[in-house]
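Reviewer 2 asked us to include a model.

Predict the structure of this chain.
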Amino acid sequence: MPGFNLQDLMSQAKQHYETLQKKMQQTVVEASAGGGTVTVKMDGRKQVLAIHIDPEAIKAGDVEMLQDLVMAALNEASRKVDQEMQASMGGMLGGLGGIL
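Predicted model (structure tokens):
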């Protein structure tokens, strides 16, 4: 295969991987549920950075509802991270010259 250099390909893949890792650390998404009653911040590695719960939700005393809102906000944040990473990966994989 003329012009094919496995070492160059591996070097490019490593650079793309390192770029993706950096992007994952820098990416922060925010998602909320219940009209902002619960808000979650998550990074691109899906590590929860913060959870904010409106004090009024606690006063209501509906623990089951609060649990559902926290779960919904976490799931939405996770979905947003997936979308961000998929968009990033698509651009980077195109940079490998269509070999993958």
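Residues 50 and 94 are 34 Å apart (CA to CA). The domain at 26-92 is CATH 3.30.1310.10 (Ybab; Chain: A;). We have added this to the supplementary material.
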